Amino acid sequence: MNEVSTIRDIRLAADGQRKIDWVKQYMPVLNSLRDQYIQERPFAGKKIVICLHLEAKTAYLALTIQAGGGEVAVVASNPLSTQDDVVAALVENGIRAHAWHGATDEEYKVHINKALDFGPDYIIDDGGDLVSTIHTCRRELIGQVRGGAEETTTGILRLKAMSREGKLEFPMMAVNDARSKYLFDNRYGTGQSVWDAILRTTNLVVAGKTVCIVGYGWCGKGVALRARGLGAKIIICEVDPVKANEAWMDGYEVMPMKEAASMADYFITVTGNKNVITKDHFARMKNGAILANAGHFDVEISKQDLSLLAVSKRKVRPNTEEFTLEDGRKIFLLAEGRLVNLAAGDGHPVEVMDMSFALQALALEYLVKNQGLENKVFNVPEQLDNRVALMKLHSLGLQIDSLTSDQAEYLAGWVNE
């Protein structure tokens, strides 16, 4: 066992390795990059800390970067999504790890700092926890960290806020904003994995029921699309008038949260914001309402308000808490209000994460090859985005047309011919 790791039980490694072997066969894009990296070793001599959900797909990304010569340490971005057997398998493969399932808030902070003790040259972040810790508590690492890549919408919002204020001390790649990420990961990945987690957790029917989805970004669109496929009636709550119009034209009901609160059987938050469901909404909900969060942090559903309103609470199923209100109504909260698709499921489908994690690897490679970038948030270059999309098509045996030189010239010009 790697003595510099902090994990639950190394004896679980064999089980974790089987999970990694399973996802590997469904990640052809990452497999192709791994073969390339073994030959070129773009990360040789570089230390990389990865803060993501520690399950098999993430593990294979870490192993791909290791195959490219990188020294890798991993830490969890969410304690409830950590799979201890996968973490053990990573340690068996020579990767440092600081994580275990169900870590307390204090343990989580310790793990983050232990990972940063590794002294990274580059980071891959999910929600901005590494970036935030480096900029607040571990400023001795400023100057050593040369850049990083961010996985989520929530993390990019935080990074852009830092950049606007001139507080960002190294360049970051906005991987979430690449088309090959958000059009697939956020929409199809979130849509499928959220309902997979809810269904396995509750074992209840969706058809004929009303689902309220709070937030109609790409993740919300995916959750709504799958809810429709399951036979639900759908309500969308939004603060963005353009997205609200879009939801209406997609065929969904649109209304304020206070109105929706009394109508829905399921509530799913996907906003990236805090307190979008609070005491005023709980007071209006049906008996048996089910609450789930698909945003990065567990702040979208006010757990404090729900606890204050409840006269009792208990665990009634794995990842399911029952809150009984004074009038006898029961409200059920899934996965402690954390990211439900990972805290109560296995996360996005493997084939979807193949594209997202290929982008992460290519973004990291781009940073290594382009030293001296400004301390701001950069989009993934279009050629890398398109490269991942083409690699995915080729893995499916699909071909597409390409522009002729005359067509490309026409699109680039402005003079009518």
Automatic annotation (TrEMBL):
Main location: cytoplasm
GO cellular component, one term: cytosol
Top-rank taxon: Bacteria
Pathway stated in the Swiss-Prot or TrEMBL entry: Amino-acid biosynthesis; L-homocysteine biosynthesis; L-homocysteine from S-adenosyl-L-homocysteine: step 1/1
EC class of the enzyme, as a word: hydrolase
Entry keyword Hydrolase: yes
PANTHER family hit by this protein: ADENOSYLHOMOCYSTEINASE
Gene: ahcY
Protein role: May play a key role in the regulation of the intracellular concentration of adenosylhomocysteine.
Name of the protein described by the UniProt record: Adenosylhomocysteinase
Needed co-factor(s): NAD(+)
Claim: Acyltransferase is one of the keywords in the record: no
Family affiliation: Belongs to the adenosylhomocysteinase family.
Record field: transmembrane: none
